[in-house]
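Protein in question quoted in full.
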Amino acid sequence: MLFRVGSIRLFRLNPKDKMLRFKTLEIPKKIHHTLIKTSPFTSCSINYNKSIKIDEAKQKPPENNSLIDNALQKFRKNPYVRITRLDRPIGSFLLFWPCGWSIALSASPACLPDLSMLALFGTGAIIMRSAGCTINDMWDKDIDSKVQRTSTRPLVTKELTILDAWFLLGGQLGLGLLALLQLNWNAILLGTSSLGLVIIYPLMKRVTNWPQFVLGMTFNWGALLGYCAVHGDVNWAACLPLYTAGICWTIIYDTIYAHQDRVDDLIAGIKSTALRFGRDTKKWLTAFSALMHSSLITTGLVCDLTWPYYVSISVIAAHIGHQIYTLNIDDPTDCAKKFLSNNHVGLILFLGIVMGVYLQNPETNGKKDTVQILQSINSPHFVALQSNKDVK
């Protein structure tokens, strides 16, 4: 049986196997436009003795999948979910990884990190990241309306009021405080001190071209807090280079992220490293990548980490190098993909630290304390500790 459009054969129905046999039809552009304008398509009917049964099971999705899809759609459309970015967990991961690095670094030689501490910090990362998003949207309500990507946020569309946001923020900070109170007092004080950075970060894009630096200080505070939560104090010789590496990493991935909104930011008067670096973005990111990896190597040497840690650094160097080399700052889709891939960077480094500590020899590494570590790198902190001992 033949199906025809005008007098042109399009496809054949084989009565034996009841399958449609398609044939490619090439029509010159002039004829194609004429066909569309004049619409000469004639209707045709299938004169076939046996009816073709449609397999409804294949066309209709299973009811269970349909229920799950509907539930997910409702979840993502909820204004409280959107303002807290619970539908976009990448930010929570990026906030958690520096905490995970520090907790893994604080483990005893030949031991794995404290799982309960990792779970507590994971919960805290979700809570505080959502609180930070709420604060950000409250500060940026007027600016968000001028940027295409953020113009549908709940406070802009008035799905939520400022009062709703205040009540939500109060609940988030209450939960965050509850998680923080599970730690020792030094960690509580250190964690509380980061709240100032959380509050002022959204303002930085109005006053400086380096808001990503402040974001890096905020997002990587866990590199200090995680170690303090386990040991009661911060091993500055180990954690400060780790914190520096995290800041550089944040500048890299958030600059890439900011290039998505470069044009809108310029119109709205918002400042960012994406606008500051401009066409020299790759050069700047390469420099920050070099500083990041030198800081990570410093941490490894100070803590006498074993070979898996340095393998992870090499993999990360290749990963970030590929990001920078293939980055197209004029393609928002490419920028988004590069940004999301940084979750892998955090995971790789975490696994590298875990294995680097686990393969340590307890007999040679277990007796090292902060003073010995500082002395080994001739740190000024060691001089200060020695002078305090002399006074006593």
